[in-house]
Amino acid sequence: MAAQGTAKRNWRVTGMDCGACAAKVRGAVARLPGVSDVDVAFMAERLRLTLDEAQTSPAQVEAAVRSVGFGIAPKGARPERPPGGFVLPDDALDPEPEVPEPPQAAPRWHDTPKGRLVLGTGLLLAAAWGADLVLPGGLAHWAFVLATLIGLAPVARRALAMARARMPFTIEMLMTIAASGALVIGAPEEAALVVFLFAVGELLEGISAGKARDGIRALSRLVPRTARLEQGGATREVPADRLQVGQVVQVRPGDRVPCDGQVIEGRSGVDESPVTGESVQSFKGPGAEVFAGSINAEALLRVRVTRPAADNTIARIVRLVEEAESARAPTERFIDRFSRIYMPAVVGAALLVAVVPPLAFGLDWGEWIYRALALLLIGCPCALVISVPAAITAALSTGARHGLLMKGGAVIEAAARTTHVAFDKTGTLTLGRPRVTDLHVQRCTEAALLAIAAGVESGASHPLARAICAEADRRGIAAAPASGARALPGLGAEAEIDGVTIRIGAPRLAEGRGPVDPAFQARVAALEAEGKTVVILQRAGRAEGLIALRDEPRADAAEGVAQLRAMGLAPVMLTGDNPRTAAAIAEGLGIAHRAQLMPEDKVAAIRNLSAGARVMMIGDGINDAPALAAAHVGVAMGSGTDVALETADAAILRDRVTDVAGQIRLARATMANIRQNIAIALGLKAVFLVTTLFGITGLWIAILADTGATVLVTLNALRLLVFRPEGPGKAARQAPQPAGRATPSVST
Ligand SMILES: Nc1ncnc2c1ncn2[C@@H]1O[C@H](COP(=O)(O)OP(=O)(O)OP(=O)(O)O)[C@@H](O)[C@H]1O
Ligand SMILES: [Zn+2]
Fold first, then answer.
1. Measured in whole angstroms, how far is the alpha carbon of residue 344 from the centre of its chain?
2. 630-640 pLDDT, tens per residue?
3. Which of 168-182, 277-291, 344-358, 469-483 is the most confident on average?
4. In the CATH hierarchy, which top-level class contains the domain 435-550?
5. Complex ipTM, two decimals?
6. CATH code that applies to domain 226-311
7. So which residues are the catalytic ones?
């Protein structure tokens, strides 16, 4: 227990539906003395802050949050693990802050405070109407007053608490003024109706936020609660989130894998759809990586835990999506700014409408105050405020279920505006598994060439290096012992063998060294024209021979490129490979290209492109990190899951080039959805602004317009939950693609 002094604290806050709600919570706690580093996330339902308990107690923080209308509970700190074991009873399972929420059924709508407010005000309203039928006029009047006051009380309390936290212009304040004003001018029935409809609107916002949140939480629910841990020759059931790295678990056929780990025994088909969004079995044997949440289809697997629960891939994905909201879209920031000006403006305008016509033209006070109150309700920016976050949360959730991750609204907006898509070649457009296809020796034998080459490359991690070593292995050739091996980035590698310097790498590494053999040159050119990468081995500056390797394009690469073109985007391939090889591969895929780029050239190429365009860069996220960072949107694409999620703005979890188009389609659909939402929200406001001023529509129509707009916006945003990023062309994608001659078969 941190007794005195400052400490980091964590709470779970319920009832937040959007960035505006998060801002209210932030505003309410930030003004407390001794509070700093406030971090509120509505998707993750989290409040984190640094607290100086000498000045403010945690209970005071909780009270401040409750006062503005949200639920709050401290997040339990995880008990220390006993050293060398984890003998903890199941009931000690309390969530650690960093682990995404444990499986937890969302409360039914009528069990939430908002739901109760709707039911309460609805019943009161119905009762008052009933009373109106049976009671004499005067009494029924008071029934409506009572209904209004009871329904308004929680709203007014929040409005005051926020005003005290220096947020006077809130939706709650507009509501409070309008409803109590209506009581004052003797329109209690409308006041009661207004309060009820407002409650309905709030409830709907909550439901839409909850839906999106569930979509993401559903992912973490895929990780089983328990695991069968091997211990002392027996297995026993333990909580999955207590597994420690290095422990061994058994996964029976039909069970879900409880952790990220490595298979140490057994062979089985594993369905990784929870992680990649693609329901395809991949075959796993000893040494293969498996991911928490995947389904073991066939046979018993023994798996060694390689990541703690809080760090497993699913937890990282969920966390990433939940945190994504902090990167807010420019549109969203604009709307926030807009509503900050809009609300005070509406209050000012309402004031004018209330006093000017009666004073200046001697018109009826009651009539114009009534219109002013209606104007206040028109001023409720609920639908507008929720128009962006509702769409974005739905899109993030849909993306996560399809293996398309985007880190927030800002990324979605940038992705939607992409004009150029730059691909790294190796591992992105190609499989990233080059194989040796040809050997050609000048002086020595093929075996000697491979032995030396493997010696130089044995320490290197470059895909070409691994392919050369694999080929030597396959032929049973031992690598020659080498010393002082070093990589020449973008060119090759070098080492000493038997005291002689050996260099292996791109032909340009050999240029200008030693005599040129035209026949050898011609052979290099011919191999490169076939789309093969040629590396030349030099001993003491003389070419000894060459090794040609080919990295096959991904089956759907041509299709993916064609889809991008059909969407009006300009795809381009960036590669360190030589121009002839690059041209051969690019031609097959129908993509523009830039070849022979050193790693820093790739960054420069992205910067150049970015000058007049919006560039999305796709790479593996590991050695392309600088280029990804230089692009407007950096997308990491990786074999299922070893994607460097954290280094990029977005990630594609399936190894599919067509998912790039899917990602952009989803982003575009989201932005279109947002534009529709803004049009709905502002359009309805505009219409009813006019009708209100002319006295055609009254109070409850004004709030109905707002609630109605909220409903429409919410429903419209929910459409994104069923959006299919794949777009058309599914059949085309499955068709065999002879490397090269794929015809674009996609329409937009
Ligand atoms: N370890 C190595 N062994 C042999 N050749 C190498 C090695 N490293 C680099 N090269 C040579 O340098 C070239 C460029 O390498 P670089 O790593 O920049 O690009 P790449 O990763 O192979 O391709 P891409 O840029 O398309 O991802 C390779 O095509 C190869 O000719
Ligand atoms: Zn909200």
1. 34
2. 899 999 887 54
3. 469-483
4. alpha beta
5. 0.96
6. 2.70.150.10
7. 424
